[in-house]
Amino acid sequence: xxxxxxLFYAVAVxxxxxxxxxxxSEISQVKIWPMPASxxxxxxxxxxxxxxxxxxxxxxxxxxxxxxxxxxxxxxxHVIDANFSAFNRSSLLQGLHIVVSSPDEQLLYGTDExxxxxxxxxxxxxxxxxxxxxxxxxxxxxxTFSQLCYFNIxxxxxxxxxxxxxxxxxxxxxxxGLLIDTSRHYLPLAVIKKVIDSMSYAKLNVLHWHIVDTQSxxxxxxxxxxxxxxAYSLSERYSAADAAEVVRHVVLLFFLLSHVSK
Length: 262
Hints:
This protein folds into 2 domains: 38-169, Chitobiase/beta-hexosaminidase domain 2-like (Chitobiase, domain 2, 2-Layer Sandwich); 177-259, 2-Layer Sandwich (Transcription Regulator spoIIAA), CATH 3.30.750. Strands 1-8-4-5-3-2-7-6 form an 8-stranded mixed beta sheet, with helices on one face. The chain has 5 helices and 11 strands; from the N terminus they run αββαβββαββββαβαβ. The protein has helices spanning 2-29, 61-75, 135-148, 189-201, 240-251; strands at residues 38-40, 44-56, 92-100, 115-119, 127-132, 149-152, 157-163, 165-169, 177-181, 206-210, 255-259. Keywords: Glycoprotein, Glycosidase, Hydrolase, Signal. Belongs to the glycosyl hydrolase 20 family.
């Protein structure tokens, strides 16, 4: 009796360990960051057609610009010159259909950022389907879609492996931020923009720009023109136009918090 109980517990432990190992193995195949709330996938392979495009009833310029940025990210400046006539037509994705429920593009704390992505669409297999309540949920869905795409250098084509995909996601936390401190460590404008772009890839939504402090004052204040004499050097400064450009770049994607000490 004791032996049978010991065997039972041993089998149970092995089953749990193997189950966890299999689950970890499956999760490791999903190359999406951050990991969505719900993911299911298959073992088929799809290809993006040469004229892969956006299909949507939305007139949102934010959405159109985000789609174009997403295409640039997945193409990585490669030339897509595959022989598409050799592909099975049922394996080609003609575009991404996006449905956004609300036309309100005001971005506030607590804005709904959820989305659902299906690749391919159950109704229209020639398209991927993305639906969201707001354009900001759609932006996250576009980032996720970009992570499903892979450029096959041998076939010169963009692939989506492990199809069909169904992904349902929303941020766990409404405030997901990153701080950059240019008062202590000056960063060129181009670097700041790259940081902002990388934040969008990871679905962060708040940039805290610690612009000035007692260490240095690199920001131009037109009403107080001598303040930025406190910069580290003449070349380590931000004009008012530079700051406005950063704000424009941020507003395309998420919030901006700035910090100016007294």
